[in-house]
From TrEMBL:
Family the entry assigns: Belongs to the UDP-glycosyltransferase family.
Keywords linked to the UniProt accession: Transferase
UniProt GO MF annotations: quercetin 3-O-glucosyltransferase activity; quercetin 7-O-glucosyltransferase activity
PANTHER family documented for this protein: GLUCOSYL/GLUCURONOSYL TRANSFERASES (PTHR11926), GLYCOSYLTRANSFERASE (PTHR11926:SF970)
Top-level lineage group: Eukaryota
Annotated coiled-coil segments of the chain: none
InterPro entries tied to this protein: UDP_glucos_trans (IPR002213)
The protein's name in its UniProt record: Uncharacterized protein
Length: 97
């Protein structure tokens, strides 16, 4: 997912899980901005400009970089994901014997 590469997202949820993903990115994690209904070219341009140049965008870029760092730590050797995956593999292999 793009939130792990240090880039904030402009979200435009339309169907299915996009609404939930947008809410998570924008409201919970804080590294996204949502386009509301009745989207126009001007509204998109305004939101992109805010994301790139505005204070709100600056904060979201900072948060996005924090998520990138967390993802790198978790996936590095000895990180939480690595350890959890090792435990899962060990559990599955021991169960099959």
């Amino acid at each position: 997912m793009y939130c792990t590469v240090g880039v904030p997202l402009v979200c435009w949820p339309i169907v299915a899980e996009q609404v939930t993903n947008c809410r998570q990115l924008c409201k919970v994690w804080g590294n996204g901005m949502e386009l509301v209904k009745d989207v126009s070219r001007d509204k998109v341009a305004e939101l992109v400009k805010e994301m790139m140049d505005g204070e709100s965008g600056k904060e979201r870029r900072r948060i996005a970089l924090e998520w990138k760092k967390k993802a790198e730590e978790a996936t590095s050797p000895g990180g939480s994901l690595s350890l959890s995956l090792d435990k899962l593999i060990e559990h599955v292999l021991l169960k099959s014997e």
